Structures are given as C-alpha cells and as structure tokens.
Amino acid sequence: MRRDELADPRPPAEQVEQMLARIEQSHAFQGSPRHRTLLRHLVDRSLADDTAALKESVIAVEVFGRPASRFDPKLDSIVRVETRRLRARLAGYFGAEGREAPLRIELPVGSYVPLIAPRQ
After folding, report:
1. Against a cut of 0.85, is the pTM above it?
2. Helix (H) or strand (E) holding 77
3. First and final CA of the chain: distance in angstroms?
4. What contacts 67, CB < 8 A, 6 or more positions away?
C-alpha cells in the first residue's frame, strides 16, 4: 500500500490552523513574538510535509535571520535554546489555558518536527 493511500493520522489542516491561532493569541504566547514565529514556522512546514527542512541550520536562517554562509550550530545555539523554551511554553499553555483544547501540539526532545494530535 502506498503512503498516500494510508489514512493521515494528523488532524485536518484547518483544525490545526485554528488551534495554532488560539495558541498565538493566548496569554502564554502574547509576550513572545519569537516563539510565535518559531511555532508557526515549524507547524507550517509540517503541514506542508516539508519536514526535511526542519533542521537546525535551516531554522537558524529562516526564522532567526542567521547568515547561511556563516551559521555554525557549535558556536550559535539559538535554535536549540529557543526550541527548548518553546517546548516549555507549549507545556505551560496546554497545562493551563489550553487544557481543554481539542488538539495538542508538542515538540519532542531532539526533534524540530511538531507532533500534532487530538487531545486524549
């Protein structure tokens, strides 16, 4: 069976977009345009099935404006640091404001590909 014949376990893109908009407008994310931008980028790439672009060097350039020719992840930890902070902010959101949300968005440790799933 081909991949496109399998049922997509992800929620519909429209539902994910609505959830993302709620998160972006939440109290937990109001004061952090950087985390809103990073989360939007990760989710948009995931929805577009462009997860190959969800790697540290690409995120550094596309989200944080680092020069592609000079970015060295050994010297500049911006992506790892901000992803860790975003992970904590998401956990806080879903533990408080978003605890009744129909979907959950998580960032697994060691990955920049968000997990988007119905709340259980």
Report:
1. yes
2. none
3. 28
4. 61
What is the residue whose two structure tokens read 């992800």? 10
Residue 49 gets the label, from left (phi > 0), alpha (psi -120 to 50) or beta, of left
Cβ atoms of 20 and 105 within 8 Å: the answer is: yes
Going by C-alpha positions, the residue among 85, 89, 105 that lies closest to residue 18 is 105
Contact between 93 and 28 (Cβ < 8 Å)? yes
Digitized pLDDT (tens) for each residue of the chain, 120 residues in all: 344 434 557 799 999 999 999 999 999 999 999 999 999 999 999 999 999 999 999 999 999 999 999 999 999 999 999 999 999 999 999 999 999 999 999 999 999 999 999 987
One-letter amino acid for residue 50 of the chain: D
Q: What is the pLDDT of residue 7?
A: 53
Cα separation, 51 vs 47, whole angstroms: 9
User: What DSSP string runs through 4-24?
Assistant: GGSPP-SPPHHHHHHHHHHHH
